[in-house]
Design brief:
heterodimer, A: 409 residues, mainly alpha, Arc Repressor Mutant, subunit A, three-stranded antiparallel β-sheet, 21 helices, elongated, B: 79 residues, nucleus (chain B)
Chain lengths: 409, 79
């Protein structure tokens, strides 16, 4: 609870804050400005919030003292005030006004000295919009602030993704946009920013800050998973994994959550120690099912973790592992047969596969199994041909079960 | 669409690593800008080494394979 605050003291605190903002701008101190714009770090600005409550005439104070900055300062104070009262939709609207005024100023500054402050604004507007939307949704109103924050950030992106020294800050804003688009389920909007980042002639991707590159590769890697471009997804997510700050375990885990299904789909398995280390044991049975050729186990694992896999969008990727599991099962049947009767090992009766599946409690007749085997041959998971009449799969004597070797099925 | 949570949202990296020109300690935040651990070494995180691509061997002595063998042999005796 705020202690009693005299008008004089409240006035002094607000004036102090305003002068620090104005000073940081006139002295081009980007770091100081950034921290002053971080309105949602409430604990830090509590003395200021109390002062704003005690001195309701604060908008005039800003306008009188700093008329040239009042478009920025007045809504900024309102945003801090509303935020401290937990009126987030109001706080968002005020902050958006301040953000627009700030962007206006930022465009006119030739050097990127205020980049950190611009990034703080980009982060803050997203976080505030999320809080505002939560509040609006709870009171039955249309939660449209996050979308509005996305529009604002597109303007920021436009101001940064140009030739010149400000471009280095564009990737950070791109990542904020990704977070918004993924949250809103409008990932198709990522495309135009990606094109702008990846087709730049005058700026090497490698020159962006590491943390932004890692975040960018995580999100674009996920997009490639959705598009089933597993090779590109592998590249991007592996880049993110390699360069991610090891202290951010939760981010490593997020990367792995998508990289594991991608790797599985190209025939590379994670070690169980990796799954244990990052608490991704929902993949353990999937891995075992591939090793064994245990179709039943794969289906059980998918069923058990269905909600989770669907939510992350990897369910379909995992479902497609069935073909690899079939391949493994047929290979095991072949090896077992070879040990018993080497001369006939390359002939697999479809009936035998039916029996094996029945043992795994999967009911399939010979025709269905033939269909699956045809698919395996077509996908180059099995080399061989059918003797249709005798219902026998005849395996090639050379490399009958080609490995994926890092290629997608 | 649940706006309240998104487990898969990437956590913000607080430290402006790789952007030394702008690095500084924000007045109001308690984290430190100095992060010697994250030196972005070429070989990357240990997790990068934790994969196997030679798992698809000819070994059929695991429990699953032994049971499969038993099953297939009982079949062939029936036929």
């Amino acid at each position: 609870m705020a202690a009693y605050l005299s008008m004089g003291e409240a006035h002094r605190r607000i004036a102090d804050y305003l002068s620090r903002v104005a000073d940081s701008i006139s002295s081009s101190d980007g770091a100081a400005l950034a921290s002053l714009l971080a309105v949602s770090f409430a604990q830090s600005s509590a003395p200021l919030s109390d002062a704003l409550s005690a001195f309701p005439d604060f908008p005039r104070l800003a306008a009188d003292r700093y008329p040239h900055l009042s478009d920025l300062l007045t809504p900024l104070l309102r945003a801090i005030h509303s935020h401290s009262l937990r009126r987030f939709a109001d706080a968002y609207s005020s902050f958006e006004k301040a953000a627009n005024a700030f962007l206006q100023e930022f465009r006119n500054w030739e050097t990127p000295w205020a980049m950190e402050a611009m990034h703080t604004v980009a982060l803050e507007i997203r976080l505030l919009a999320e809080k505002a939307d939560r509040e609006l949704a709870t009171s039955g109103k249309n939660p449209d602030k996050l979308q509005a924050a996305g529009s604002f950030l597109m303007k920021v992106f436009g101001a940064l993704a140009v030739k010149g020294p400000k471009r280095i800050g564009a990737l950070y804003v791109t990542c904020q946009l990704f977070k918004i688009y993924f949250r809103l389920g409008t990932v198709h909007l990522c495309r135009s920013v990606i094109r702008s980042i990846e087709t730049a002639r005058n700026f090497e991707f490698e020159d962006f800050p590491v943390k932004d590159k890692v975040t960018y590769m995580y999100y674009t890697g996920r997009l490639e998973v959705f598009n089933e471009n597993f090779l590109v997804a592998d590249q991007k997510l592996t880049y993110a994994l390699t360069h991610c700050n090891p202290q951010y375990e939760s981010n490593l885990r997020r990367i792995l959550k998508f990289l594991i299904p991608v790797k599985l789909s190209i025939g590379v398995l994670p070690r169980i120690t990796l799954l244990e280390r990052y608490n991704l044991l929902e993949y353990a049975d999937v891995v075992t099912s591939l090793k064994r050729g245990d179709l039943r186990l794969l289906r059980q694992a998918l069923e058990r973790h269905e909600d989770q896999f669907l939510k992350s969008g990897v369910y379909l990727v995992l479902e497609k592992l069935e073909l690899q599991v079939y391949q493994r099962l047929v290979k095991k049947i072949h090896i077992i047969q070879r040990q018993k009767e080497p001369a006939k090992a390359h002939q697999i009766k479809l009936e035998v596969v039916v029996k094996a599946l029945k043992w795994l409690e999967i009911d399939m007749d010979v025709d269905e199994v033939e269909c699956i085997m045809a698919c395996l041959i077509y996908k180059n998971l099995i080399k061989g041909y059918f003797a249709h009449k005798s219902k026998v799969l005849v395996l090639s004597k050379q490399d009958p079960f080609p490995k994926l070797n890092g290629k997608p099925v | 669409m649940d706006l309240l949570e998104d487990d898969d949202e990437f956590e913000e990296f607080e430290i402006d690593q790789g952007m030394h020109r702008f690095v500084s300690v924000p007045l109001f935040c308690s984290f430190v800008a100095d992060d010697p651990e994250w030196d972005d070494k070429e070989e990357g995180n240990e997790a990068v080494q934790q994969w196997e691509d030679d798992w698809d061997d000819d070994d059929v002595n695991d429990d699953f394979s032994l049971q499969l063998r038993k099953e297939l042999e009982s079949n062939s005796s029936k036929n």
